[in-house]
Design brief:
The complex is a heterodimer of chains A (63) and B (649).
Chain A lengths: L3 E2 L9 H5 L5 E4 L2 E4 L9 H5 L5 E2 L8
Chain B lengths: L3 H5 L7 E3 L2 E3 L3 E3 L15 H12 L4 E3 L3 E2 L13 E2 L6 H13 L3 E6 L13 E3 L13 E3 L2 H20 L4 E6 L4 H6 L14 H4 L1 H14 L4 E8 L10 H14 L3 E6 L19 H8 L6 E3 L7 H8 L5 E4 L1 H5 L3 H6 L14 H7 L33 E5 L3 H12 L3 E6 L8 H4 L10 H14 L2 E4 L5 H9 L5 E4 L3 E3 L5 E2 L1 H6 L7 E5 L3 H13 L3 E5 L11 H13 L3 E3 L3 E6 L2 E6 L2 E5 L3 E4 L2 E3 L1 H7 L5 E4 L9 H14 L1
Parallel strand pairs in B: 3-4, 3-14, 4-7, 5-6, 7-10, 8-9, 10-11, 11-12, 12-13, 13-14, 15-16, 15-18, 16-17, 18-29, 20-27, 21-22, 21-27, 22-23
Antiparallel strand pairs in B: 1-2, 19-28, 24-25, 25-26
Helix pairs in contact in B: 2-3, 4-7, 14-16, 14-22
Chain lengths: 63, 649
């Protein structure tokens, strides 16, 4: 699943950019932005983000 | 349909007995977490489709992923773990039992309380005693009260009853790698002074009470257990191997009907399932168990080729061949072996991409099988490729994994495909990567399989032939081409003062003793490993990112970084090379500018070959760039790019 970035929470610290294996993240209007075509859905960015601005849209309910 | 596989491997394809049940062969798809179920533990369509693919693939026994038995989620190890703590989960679980039965396999539900690795959504995990752990994924441990132990036992018993109600043929308990039962058994993590701690038998009490309780509740269906035959925790005061082997005998005595033998904990400082471990390496552990018990013994662990379990079954070392990763990579492995189509098996390369996805809350993925998790979606082509609407004439430039995968899919869909490779050999950058360290030769297996699939689908190969702009213009005039796929890899900027990975690995050029490697991703680390394995060098690696090897799987990275540390490799991260000269490298790091004077400079950062871009982009209407030609990345990206493009053509 391609992670989702909360642009309001993002502080543009670049930590996700520096950790992303396929270098699919860049800054756009002062917030991190994932290029979907290059994203390999590893989740490293979500784990790295110091302000929890990046989440993985895990489907929660199967009820 | 031929069956020469069953003649070649008579021991694998003979029937087997577990308790009162008979399986059609000796192959068991072993439990594998997927993160396909929903976050609340319900079974998803994705999981059912995946399990159906496993059952259709021909294994005699198909095991579900471990389901957690407790309602608090203390046993839940992954965001998408399957749940079995309430009757409301039974209908979903029954769907899995149904699809397994439909394909004539025995269904086995695994109950898994993750213990030391559990509590994924909590701020603690449960343990017999408080023994801290370093791995960041794990939660701080909390000692179980006796009431909590009793609760865990009854949770397992009720879970087993639900498995039976859902229609499963057998139940498996998991007590491996740091999961709850194993933490009680191991001296490393069990420091209790009550009846659940102390000598080996007391440490096994939790396991004994669970097995006995489950047997009493579901008695007529076989109940097995996975235990650790060799913890590899000697450096932390774990059990001896003799003790571990004895736990299997104790499990048999408690009533277990079958035993699965595993090796190592997630915290072990020795690698168990990576490419450097030879095939069949752990069979002596299973054999030691087999000698002590009278119930079926099974093992997975680095037995990727059928001749290994065939011989092991014949030699009375194991009774059943278990597979996890090789059947994630290809659920049809059993049927392909049986039909004598071994060369078509999509081969697991032990990259452990599947594993690492789990720890980052993502569904599992597979380097060599892009359609993993999409088995029921027709446009992903797991069971068959949908035919192309219009048959096109397609030129693919480059015979590495990206080009080969694209060719196999495109031709499989009915296109006419010609693949040009300027070298005389197929494989692209895998030809270099397969020489980096021991076991890396396995990286050539997907190349060989893809070549076989290409030939079967009618791809025409033109080897030792460089494709040029003039050739394209000519073909274009004659209307011999509809689309061009550029899979020509990437290039390392060459110059007289700089060596490339090709120079070092293929041409075996010897660099000087002091080396600067530019680029600390997988390529840079690979070169360093290649050099340091056999010789001493003083290596400095300059990397732009915040950590070296960000594209290297953690299972391999810690090994590589261990070697780097031992050999005193110096890393500069967040550092950018400004210029290189005759034996000089000037670069900017966070502390300022530095100049180094090495004997040799190795360029380990590549870029897409722009020349192709300029030559072709205006000539033909359909041009695709895939793999490293699009952006230099890893094997998984090459294969996935190739697959997607092959499906889109």
């Amino acid at each position: 699943m391609i992670p989702v970035i909360d642009k309001d929470k993002c502080t543009a610290c670049r930590k996700c950019i520096e950790i992303c294996p396929p270098q699919a993240i860049s800054l756009k209007d002062d917030a991190a932005c994932i290029e979907a075509d290059l994203c390999e859905e590893c989740g490293f960015c979500a784990a790295e983000c110091p302000v929890n601005a990046i989440t993985i849209p895990f489907p929660i309910s199967g009820r | 349909m031929t069956n020469n596989g069953s003649e070649k491997y008579p021991n694998i394809f003979q029937s087997g007995r577990i308790g009162r049940l008979i399986s059609k062969n000796r192959i068991k798809y072993a439990a594998t977490e997927t993160n396909f179920p929903f976050g609340d533990g319900y079974v998803s369509d994705k999981e059912v489709a995946y399990m159906e693919a496993q059952a259709r693939g021909g294994a005699g026994i198909v095991t579900t992923q471990g389901a957690y038995p407790d309602k608090l989620g203390e046993g839940k190890g992954f965001k998408g773990s399957m749940a079995i703590y309430d009757d409301r989960f039974i209908p979903g679980l029954a769907r899995i039992a149904d699809v397994i039965r439909k394909h004539d396999a025995l269904s086995c539900l695994q109950i898994l309380h993750c213990g030391r690795e559990g509590g994924v959504e909590l701020d603690y995990c449960l343990m017999p005693s408080i023994v801290p752990q370093k791995l960041s994924y794990f939660k701080p441990p909390r000692e179980m009260t006796k009431d909590e132990i009793k609760q865990a036992i009854s949770d397992h018993i009720e879970a087993a009853r639900r498995a039976k109600d859902a229609g499963f043929d057998m139940v498996e308990l998991s007590g491996i790698v740091g999961y709850l039962i194993s933490t009680f058994i191991s001296r490393y993590t069990n420091k209790r002074t009550d009846e659940y701690g102390g000598d080996l038998r007391s440490r096994c009490r939790l396991m004994i009470e669970i097995i006995q309780g489950v047997k009493a509740r579901v008695g007529d269906i076989p109940v097995g257990i996975r235990l650790c035959g060799h913890e590899l925790l000697d450096d932390r005061g774990g059990n001896t191997m003799d003790e571990s082997i004895e736990t299997f005998r104790i499990a048999e005595e408690a009533g277990a009907d079958f035993l699965s033998v595993t090796v190592g904990w997630h915290e072990s400082s020795q690698s168990v399932i990576t490419r450097d471990v030879p095939m069949g390496h752990w069979l002596p552990v299973a054999e030691a168990v087999k000698k002590k018990v009278n119930i079926p013994v099974m093992m997975a662990f680095r037995q990727f080729f059928p001749h290994i379990p065939e011989k092991a079954i014949a030699g009375n070392r194991i009774d059943f061949w278990e597979l996890c990763r090789p059947m994630i990579a290809d659920p049809e492995l059993p049927v392909k072996i049986k039909e004598g189509r071994e060369n078509e098996i999509i081969p697991c390369v032990a990259c452990n991409l599947c594993f690492s996805r789990l720890y980052y809350h993502q569904p599992i993925m597979c380097t060599v099988r892009p359609n993993l998790g999409h088995e029921a979606e027709e446009d992903w082509g797991y069971y068959r490729f949908y035919p192309a609407k219009k048959n096109k004439k397609i030129i693919i430039i480059g015979g590495g994994p990206a080009g080969l995968q694209c060719a196999a899919v495109a031709a499989g869909r009915g296109h006419n495909v010609i693949l040009y490779e300027k070298k005389k050999e197929l494989g692209g950058s895998m030809l270099l990567a397969s020489k980096v360290d021991e076991g890396a030769i396995e990286l050539l297996r997907p190349v060989n399989t893809l070549e076989a699939l290409c030939r079967k689908a009618g791809v025409e190969f033109r080897l030792s032939k460089e494709y040029t702009g003039e050739m394209l213009e000519d073909m274009q005039k004659k209307k011999e081409v509809d689309a061009v796929v550029i899979a020509s890899g990437s290039v390392f900027k060459e110059s007289h003062n700089i060596l490339t990975p090709h120079n070092i690995i293929a041409e075996e050029k010897k660099p000087g003793r002091n080396i600067v490697i530019i680029g600390g991703s997988g390529t840079g680390l690979g070169i360093a490993v290649f050099l340091l394995r056999n010789n001493d060098y003083r290596i400095t690696i300059i990397e732009e990112g915040s950590k070296p090897g960000r594209d290297v799987n953690p299972f391999y990275l810690w090994q590589y970084m261990g070697l780097m540390k031992k050999k005193n490799v110096i890393f500069y991260t967040r550092s950018r090379v400004i210029e290189t000269g005759e034996k000089t490298v000037r670069f900017a790091c966070p502390k300022g500018e530095i100049v180094l004077n090495p004997d040799s400079i190795i360029m380990a950062r590549s870029e897409p070959n722009k020349a192709w871009h300029n030559a072709f982009i205006d000539i033909t209407p359909e041009v695709y760039f895939i793999g490293d030609a699009k952006k230099p990345r890893r094997l998984q990206n090459a294969i996935h790019d190739g697959y997607r493009t092959g499906m889109a053509l």
